[in-house]
Design goal:
Helix content: 25-40%
Strand content: 25-35%
Oligomer: single chain
Radius of gyration: 22 Å
Number of helices: 13
Largest sheet: 9 strands, mixed
Shape: globular
Distance between the termini: 24 Å
Number of domains: 2
Length: 415
C-alpha cells in the first residue's frame, strides 16, 4: 500500500520575505527555457531557480554547478534564508487557476513523503511509458544537495480524499505565477487529521502523474547509497504532491506533436486516415477544431494547407494497435505512436512534443515546424481505468495543469 509520511518542511523565512513568495518561487525545472531561467534568476538573488537549475558565474569562481547548488542550499539554511518547521507536518496545497477554456478552477492536494517502491512491486504505479532521457542531471543535483527541491505529482484513486484536505488556518506562504494562478501552502499539524489522510492515501494505489524520471532517479540514488554502505532512512522517501483522481480536481491537457523534415504528411497517411479540411491555420480555427475533434473522435492536422481533421480508418489501424491493451486503443497518443510516428520517422521526420495547441499551430505558420498533430485530452475516467488495470499510457499523453510552484516547500533527506 502507498506509504505517506509527514515531514519537517523547509521554507523561505517569512520574517524576511513575507508570505507572498512570488519573487523567489519558480516553475518546475523542466518547463524553464534559458530565457525564462535568466528572467527568474534576475528576479531575486535567492530565487528557487538558483537551486533547481544552478548556473556558475565567472566571478563566483565555481566550476561545478551542482557543488554550487549545494553551497547555496547550505548557505541559505545557515543564514536563515530558509527555515525548517519544528514539527512533522503534512502540507495542504491549493491552486486557484483558469483551465484551457478560461473557466475558474481550484485544485487541492496534500504534500508529504511517499515511500519509494520499485515499479511493479507495490501500489505506486507509473502513469505513462517514459522516453529515454538522461537522469544524470537530477541525480548529480540530488547527490550534491541531498534535498528534494520540488515535489513529484501523484494521483490517488481514493474517492473523498479531497474532503479531508480542509485548511484550518491561514496559509504559511503563497505566490502568483506568470499565468495568474494563485498558489497557497498550509501546514497540517493535527495528528488525528494526519493519520486520516495517511490512511486514505494508503487505501488505494498512487499513480505517478508527473515526475517519473525524478522518481526513478531517487530509486537509483537509494540503491547507490545502499551499495556504498551509506544508506539512511531519508533515502527511502520522496516529496510528493498527491491529488485525488477526480474531475473537479484535475485539468488534463493533451500533449501535441510537431513534425519537421519536409515530409508529405497527407500522402504518407492516406491509407490510414481520411483528411477533412476545416479551415485556415488561424487562432479561431484552432480553438474551434477541438469541438470537431471530440465530435468526430479524431485528431487534427496543421500543415501548409491549413487545418484538417484526421478521421481514422479503423479497419486499417486495427492491426497496428493489436498489441495495445484495449483500454488504450482509442487514445490519440496510442494511435499516433503506433500508426503515425513509425511512418514519419521512416521518412526522415523528427517529432517534438508541446502541450499548447495555439503554440504548435503558430510554429507551423512561421515555418518552425512543417506540420503539427493536435490530440484530444484524456478524461479522468479513462485515466482511472488505465490505472486500475495497472497499464501505462503511451509517452507524452497527458499534461496536468497547473504545475506546482517550486519554492513554497523544500525537503532535506537528512531532516
Amino acid at each position: 500500500m502507498p506509504d505517506l509520511s509527514p515531514f519537517r518542511g523547509i521554507h523561505y523565512n517569512t520574517e524576511r520575505f513575507g508570505t507572498d513568495l512570488s519573487a523567489v518561487a519558480a516553475p518546475p525545472y523542466d518547463v524553464i527555457d534559458p530565457e525564462r531561467r535568466a528572467h527568474l534568476g534576475g528576479l531575486h538573488e535567492v530565487n528557487a531557480v538558483h537551486l533547481t537549475l544552478p548556473q556558475v558565474t565567472d566571478d563566483a569562481g565555481h566550476d561545478d554547478r551542482y557543488a554550487h547548488a549545494a553551497e547555496l542550499w547550505s548557505a541559505w539554511r545557515a543564514d536563515a534564508t530558509l527555515v525548517a518547521d519544528d514539527e512533522l507536518c503534512l502540507y495542504l496545497y491549493q491552486v486557484e487557476f483558469e483551465d484551457e477554456d478560461g473557466a475558474p478552477r481550484q485544485m487541492t492536494a496534500v504534500i508529504g513523503l511517499l515511500r519509494l517502491e520499485v515499479p511493479g512491486t507495490g501500489d505506486v504505479l507509473p502513469h505513462e511509458r517514459t522516453m529515454s532521457k538522461p537522469k544524470g542531471d537530477r541525480l548529480d543535483l540530488l547527490r550534491a544537495t541531498r534535498a528534494n527541491l520540488e515535489p513529484i505529482w501523484g494521483l490517488s484513486l481514493t474517492e473523498g480524499l479531497t474532503g479531508l484536505l480542509d485548511a484550518d488556518g491561514p496559509p504559511l506562504v503563497g505566490c502568483t505565477d506568470t499565468r495568474g494562478a494563485h498558489h497557497r501552502l498550509y501546514a497540517l499539524r493535527d495528528p488525528a487529521r494526519i493519520d486520516a489522510i495517511v490512511a486514505a492515501v494508503a487505501a488505494t494505489p498512487v499513480v505517478i502523474a508527473d515526475g517519473h524520471h525524478r522518481y526513478e532517479t531517487s530509486l537509483h540514488y537509494q540503491a547507490e547509497r545502499r551499495e556504498a554502505g551509506e544508506h539512511a532512512d531519508g533515502d527511502d522517501w520522496i516529496m510528493t504532491m498527491i491529488v485525488e483522481l477526480a474531475d473537479d480536481q484535475l485539468a488534463v491537457q493533451p500533449i501535441h506533436r510537431t513534425v519537421t523534415g519536409r515530409v508529405d504528411v497527407r500522402a504518407l497517411l492516406a491509407d490510414r486516415f481520411v483528411v477533412e479540411p476545416v479551415g485556415p491555420n488561424a487562432d479561431a480555427v484552432v480553438t474551434r477544431v477541438s469541438a470537431d475533434m471530440a465530435r468526430r473522435a479524431a485528431m487534427a492536422l496543421v500543415d501548409a494547407e491549413g487545418i484538417a481533421l484526421l478521421i481514422p480508418q479503423r479497419d486499417a489501424l486495427a492491426p497496428m494497435l493489436a498489441d495495445e491493451p484495449e483500454v488504450l486503443r482509442n487514445m490519440d497518443a496510442a494511435e499516433f505512436e503506433a500508426c503515425i510516428a513509425p511512418v514519419l520517422v521512416a521518412a526522415g521526420a523528427e517529432i517534438a512534443y508541446r502541450h499548447d495547441r495555439h503554440t504548435v499551430a503558430e510554429q507551423v505558420g512561421k515555418g518552425a515546424a512543417d506540420a503539427a498533430f493536435l490530440l484530444r485530452p484524456v478524461d479522468v475516467p479513462t485515466i482511472r481505468a488505465v490505472a486500475e488495470q495497472h497499464e501505462r499510457m503511451p509517452q507524452k499523453t497527458t499534461f496536468f495543469h497547473p504545475k506546482p510552484s517550486t519554492g513554497l516547500v523544500f525537503r532535506s533527506l537528512d531532516a
